[in-house]
Known about the structure:
With 70 residues, the chain is of the alpha+beta class. The chain is built from 2 helices and 4 strands, in the order E-H-E-E-E-H. It has helices at 15-33, 59-64; strands at 3-9, 41-47, 53-54, 57-58. Strand 3 (53-54) and strand 4 (57-58) form a beta hairpin. The radius of gyration is 16 Å and the shape is elongated. Residues 2-62 form the 4-oxalocrotonate tautomerase-like domain.
Amino acid sequence: MPYVNIRVTNEGVTSAQKLELIEGVTDLLTRVLSKDPATTFVIIDEVETDNWGLNRESITTRRRCPKAAV
């Protein structure tokens, strides 16, 4: 019984895109690991950009004023 958790920022992922992710992950597990789609769970969590950080900054801050790539 596979369980896959996908986390994305809450920046406009559509229902259609989420369904495509669910279908794609399920198909991948079926093809590669011979897992039963009926027992494959795919969970998509949408995370506030204030709650997602990278390199000492929240994504909210990074989106407002991106720094030059180093």
